[in-house]
Amino acid sequence: MEAKLIERLEAAVARLEVLSAGGISESGVEVSSDPSILAFDDLMAEYAARVSAAAEKIGGQVLDVTKLVLEAFSVQKKLLIEIKQTQKPDMAGLVEFLKPLNEVILKVNAMTDGRRSDFFNHLKSSGDSLSALAWIAYTGKDCGMSMPIAHVEESWQMAEFYNNKVLVEYRNKDQNHVEWAKALKELYLPGLRDYVKSHYPLGPVWSASGKKASSAPPKAPPPGAPAPPPPPPASLFSSEPSQPSSSQPKQGMSAVFQEISSGNVSSGLKKVTADMKTKNRTDRTGVVSSSEKETRSSSSSFSKAGPPKLELQMGRKWAVENQIGRKNLVIDDCDAKQSVYIYGCKDSVLQIQGKVNNITIDKCTKMGVVFKDVVAACEVVNCNGVEVQCQGSAPTISVDNTSGCQLYLSKDSLGASITTAKSSEINVLVPTGPDGDWGEHSLPQQYIHAFKDGQFETTPVSHSGA
């Protein structure tokens, strides 16, 4: 009897040792042979391989960023394996658990910093698309995230704006770039979306009796040592912090990713030493150079335009004003009774994630606007070089006194009535097939007026050989 008891204890100890090695789940099945893990391998083989093959033909930064995208997917697979052997952690533990994935995403986002690359749209679409991998952080309806399937779809919509630019730019120049853009989209839609739909529609399933996730508390610096620098100001969702559409504090998963990107504010402040003060600097003289005059004049002209603004006024009108160089502006809490007024923005991108009554884009330059549905109309007035993408329906689109406007229509908005006046270089891009191709149509800006039968007849000028 005693020998049997010892034998059973030894077997139990051996069992625990195998489990701690991380190769087998609680049910005795190897985690690597779990159906959901095998399906992830199929996802990589079918879709990721195609993106990689297209990137190999292009090379350079496109190949570099593609390798990082695939690295992020590989990290997600490792996290899925760990989840099957790990108990559900608290918020601090979840932050630490997601850290490897966040580090790879930060590398991708860093590639868009600094001087604008010739492949900026490739880099930006790759970086924005990786936010789809955050579906793995879904912990329930109160976590502050959309359901996993919806999160993947919404994340791709954020990246599709730049992906479409790649398709349009290289459509008649280099098919390798077109193939890369199509393959990147298919990696998420239908690739990742269908995978999540089949295996994790309600989020990842943590182990009930596995090991506990470790949350590494920050170590206090030794006495007299300087405070550590704060982490980079970026989260798992974006390369730059999105401007919130409301002033309410973040909760749930939003707090998790805010925690990832935040640091001790005071530790990031630089101490001003005596030699850094203006009165003690030797490189400062009373002579103002021409470059300084230009800088001061430009900054004063910016201040006259007013401060940047993104706010809901009187509960009915969203005001987006004087945004410069902001690529991640989002309005996500809107309804069909509200209007959106965009004024004086430059080199920025705004996403409107919901149905609104009316959208007006006024006096904007190099502005991108992505919206789902509009009840009345989308109006572009007094603008220069803007791009507008409708992902849902829009009964009316008007362009007035604008030079350079690209309109992207979805299948649901092909019946939109487009009105133009005193405008030039107006192009409309429509979907032409299941492969995500776009057909570009230029709206006429020159007309022939001929007097016939007692009245003038107006027809657009047709250019032969176009």
From TrEMBL:
Family: Belongs to the CAP family.
PANTHER family: ADENYLYL CYCLASE-ASSOCIATED PROTEIN (PTHR10652)
GO cellular component annotations of the record: cytoplasm
Domain C-CAP/cofactor C-like: 307-443
Composition bias type Low complexity, residue spans: 208-217, 235-253
Span list, region Disordered: 208-253, 268-308
Short name of any one Pfam family annotated for the protein: CAP_C
Organism field: Hibiscus trionum
Residue ranges with Basic and acidic residues bias: 272-284
Protein name: Adenylyl cyclase-associated protein
